[in-house]
Amino acid sequence: MTLPVGIVGLGNAGSALATALSGKMPLVGYDIDPARRQAVHDLAMECVESVAAVAAQAKAVVLSLPKPDISKAVTAELLSAETKPEIIIETSTITPKVAQDLHAMCQAQQVSFVDAAIAGGVAGMAAGTTTFLVGGSAADVAKAQLVLAAMSETIMHLGPVGTGMGAKVVNNAVMHAVMVVLIEAGAMATKLGIPMATLVDILRREEGLMRPLTHRVEERMMQAHYQGGMSVSNARKDSMLALEMAQELGVPLYAIQASHTPYEIAESSGMGSLDYAALATLWEAWSGIAFTDQAAS
Predict the structure, then answer these.
(1) What's this model's pTM, rounded to 2 decimal places?
(2) Which of 49, 167, 180, 223 could staple 255 via S-S, CB 3.0–4.6 A?
């Protein structure tokens, strides 16, 4: 790439991406906050005074911004500049709908666009070892490849525009919900006198936290294989015991308590003898989807 890559947004994530790119290709950056621009003065990057100045120099522009409306405003500025970039790479965390809106804006100006959600922390970004979850056409992803590869270890092209961001939002939803479950579990364990280190050891086993993903989702849910295994009825019983124990211990539950309801629905729907992964069929009915279709694609 003969002209610089631009980065708009030099906060924690943007400055980490700039660090990964620094020295690999010409780099120009902008942040509305002068302090952010000063904080990256040691990188091999020219900091400019406006979004338009980035557009004037960069063939590819990476966005790393805090809010969807800011992404839209910056994209509009880039597209209205006298010299437009060839491609905009959106790494800010936004919804698939916003990614599609940005894509439509770019299409109207014959500018390529991909959403490239970051699956990893700031340290991995700065080291260039992060993973990008990418949505976009094959042609646009190919155009972004050089820049994405310079900032990451793994690039996962998941489908059309929006799928990268959608995957990140789903991933983050799991992480955030599991965090609440782990806090609740830790509170119960601590009340029982079980050290947190011991709880961590229990949950990190092969039969611990990964078991629902590798066995129940991958081996049962994706195969629609619900015969045998631990039954809905037994899982419901264990869930009730957890609620009872928490009440006795005086530990408030939110996520774990909410997760009990589907077991009651499944039991009352005649699913008691099926493996508890069969709860997936409730969501298939409610959402009009089939998890097995994804396994076959």
Answers:
(1) 0.89
(2) 180
